[in-house]
Amino acid sequence: MRYMRRVSIQTKILGLTLSLSFLIILLLTSYFTYMHGKQIAEDRGRLALELSKSVSMMPTIIEAFESDNPSEMIQPVVEKIRQKTGAEFIVVGNKEGIRYSHPQESEIGKKMVGGDSKRAIEKGEYYISEARGSLGLSMRGKSPIFNQNGDIIGVVSVGFLVEDIEKQIFKNISKELVISLSALIASIIGSFLLAKSIRKDTLGLEPYEIVNLYKVKNAVLHSVQEGILSIDKNGIITSMNQRAKSLLGIKGSVRHLKVDGLFPSNYLYDVLNSGEPQFDKELTWKNKTIIVSCTPIKDEKSVNGVVAVFREKTEIEQMINTLSEMKTYSEELRAQTHEFTNKLYVLSGLLQLGEYDEAIEMIQGETTELEFQNQIVFEQIRDTKVQVILLGKIGKASEKKILFEIAPETYIDKLPDHIRLSQLTLILGNIIDNAFEAVSDIEKPVIKFFATDIGEDIIFEISDNGKGIADEDMPSLFERGFSSKEGEDLRGYGLSNADKSVKELGGIIEVQNGKENTVFTVYLPKQLQGGEKQ
């Protein structure tokens, strides 16, 4: 007892620290080595599964199955992905298990081995398996490939060799042993400080490392262009980067606040309750269209939160619409140029033949018709956007030998600012183009256009003397992908896009399907919802 009393508190702590440190480090090293090895294997399995899912959903892969030689399209794509991700192999096969891709090209065309593709091909399941293939024992991710009809047409297998995983585990064990030895030496040197550090630091990290990790986390969160938001299981916000605040129009701190009212919370709660991730969901929030992907935060038994990554679609959508508009205008100007070129050739021929009276009559007829149309377009239609669209369609109708009549009583003033050119192009352009197609087989095709802004709504009316719309097609007229024309994959989107743009503006489209003509009437309110006048 006297000896113990003579020992300083520093020596007591040193003795206790040495014994405790050795025991704790030994136990922790063993535990973390086991858990780290298990985590590496699970991570490789999850990575293999996610890679297989991504490959199975690639439009290029799905379309390749319809070609005569699928492997010619599939092999370069998956090999590039394999090299970028470090996977040992990415094999794509059909329902019979015949390979369309393989790291060894000599194996393409042969049957897949391992016997673990049955669940994906027959039941459409996504899963992780371990089996021995042509390259050895591997951890595999299996995903079925579905076509546009939802039928299983093949399977994707992504794998990492178990041998490589074990090498990585042993490599990490060596690092952990070095760290453990360093910690033991540090415990001797810094007795009291290290003893206190061991009690607080369960992850084996030094305090400065924790600070650095926190700084790196914040730097990453605030440097990415996507908005990042995380909540706990109670819907309380745990983190949100600056980009997310900017996209959502939020100022100040939001930590410990409920996510309701700040973000489309129903979507987050769906992921929180189901525990299943959801990707690339298109949502509308505060007049912005955002693309959201949500991943649950899980432990072994439950879901503890959700991380949402989102980005704005509006700017990309506007750029695409603008490019589409430019392409449409270019095509319509080309049509107009082509038509006037043909008329100039005819006029030149008449002059060369000395048919001056007929030439003058042709010029006067063209001038009269042009003056009448221009009077309506430029004097009775005061909105530049509508003028541009109509001029292009008039030229296109002239080239197609279609009589395009603008009603003399047509009159509209400048449209409200909230009606964008991209939306108006989708609405009028697609409906008029649909009328062009409807009269393509008519002997004397006629399309009539009328517009007015009298009252609370702006009204556009487009009629044609085509064959009309079949009664059974009416309910599906505005469905995306629906078309009464068979055998043309790119059809079925025009009226759907027009209907979507009309609904975005709070309007409606009415269709009157008569025996002599078909009439599309568009009603666009002059005011946005909520009464704000533009």
From TrEMBL:
Which InterPro entries does this UniProt record tie to the protein? Answer: HATPase_C_sf (IPR036890), HATPase_dom (IPR003594), His_kinase_dom (IPR005467), PAS (IPR000014), PAS-like_dom_sf (IPR035965), sCache_3 (IPR033463), Sensor-like_sf (IPR029151), Sig_transdc_His_kin-like_C (IPR004358)
The record gives the membrane topology as:
Multi-pass membrane protein
What do the Gene Ontology cellular component annotations say?
plasma membrane
- Stretches of the chain forming a coiled coil according to its record: none
> Could you tell me one molecular function GO term of this UniProt entry?
ATP binding
Which UniProt key words apply to this protein?
ATP-binding, Cell membrane, Kinase, Membrane, Nucleotide-binding, Phosphoprotein, Transferase, Transmembrane, Transmembrane helix, Two-component regulatory system
The subcellular location is:
Cell membrane
Q: Which Pfam families match?
A: HATPase_c, PAS_8, sCache_3_2, SPOB_a
Q: What is this protein called?
A: histidine kinase
Q: What is the protein's species of origin? A: Lysinibacillus halotolerans
